[in-house]
Amino acid sequence: MAPLITHLYTADPSAHVFEGRIYIYPSHDRETDIQFNDNGDQYDMADYHVFSTPSLDPPAPVTDHGVVLRTEDIPWVSKQLWAPDAARGPRDGRYYLYFPARDKAGIFRIGVAVGDRPEGPFTPDPEPIKGSYSIDPASFVDPDTDETYLYFGGLWGGQLQCYQSGNTADVFDASWQGPKEPSGPGKRAMGARVARLTHDMRQFAEEPREVVILAPETGEPIAADDHDRRFFEAAWMHKRGSTYYFSYSTGDTHYLCYATADTPYGPFTYGGRILEPVLGWTTHHSIVEFQGRWWLFHHDCELSKGVDHLRSVKVKEIFYDDAGKILPVKQD
Ligand code: FUB
């Protein structure tokens, strides 16, 4: 499958259907001479573009709506505009772009920028969301309640491990910086975080909670050493029928996996793999229903011939079995 976008490197695609079109909110990868490290310093992105297309099957040209937000537009940001997402406010019909970046102290926070159109432009709030931390915000508007939830978090360079001693942005522990995470017998994996948003879409309405994933064979939380199944980064939420599907990357084992629950908070039960490892270290995705079919947006490094920080967005159709399990995607 060819990349959807070839004139730029794009990654971490968050796809949504707005006004009858697919809109894609990706990271904009760029060339840097920063050496690869486990902290992700080589992912040194400085702006966002928005893309859209009217059709996936048959494929239609993808429109690049241009730059919608830059580092220099955001007063609190120092660097690294990582994986974004967007939501349409169910109460005001405006569009909200959520993005992680390092603040002036080098700590990842999550910001929000507001626009009147899905393709932007977006005006950032002057401060990050109060109490936000780590990376990879994924917004989810529950179609049955019109409540919006923000899922977030990522280990290693994403700094989630720096919040072991509490669940608030005030307890950043710099000694956990770097590619470290809980490990050892009896230790449970760290979960992503989720918080319901205020109705103005700009703040947490509650203290973030941990997203717990249970192993189906024991009913216990996934163990920290279970790197084939534990959450690493790239959270996504979609709802099909009454089931909430939380999907994510396992990081150093490079799988996209999912878990299900009957509430947006979980606890979730591990369900299986969606995508096997792709070319490149990172794997990141979104899942969206469009014209009655379900689609997986993800990235790989095929276009850059394997350069980890130069990724390209792709799309594949996905299918569910009669019990609601996501069938593993066939490799190209
Ligand atoms: O694009 C930078 C980081 O790489 C993202 O935030 C992670 O999910 C990984 O894809």
From TrEMBL:
Molecular function (GO) terms listed?
Answer: hydrolase activity, hydrolyzing O-glycosyl compounds
Which keywords fit this entry according to its UniProt record? Carbohydrate metabolism, Glycosidase, Hydrolase
Important for catalytic activity, responsible for pKa modulation of the active site Glu and correct orientation of both the proton donor and substrate (site feature) positions:
136
Q: Entry's Pfam families?
A: Glyco_hydro_43 (PF04616)
Q: Where in this chain does the entry annotate a coiled-coil region?
A: none
Under the heading Gene3D superfamilies, the entry gives: Glycosyl hydrolase domain, family 43
Q: Does the keyword Hydrolase apply?
A: yes
Does Flavoprotein appear among the keywords?
no
GO biological process entries: carbohydrate metabolic process
- CDD domains the UniProt entry points to: GH43_CoXyl43_like (cd18619)
Give the family this protein belongs to, as stated in its UniProt record. Belongs to the glycosyl hydrolase 43 family.
For this entry, the protein name equals Xylosidase-like protein
Annotated source species: Echria macrotheca
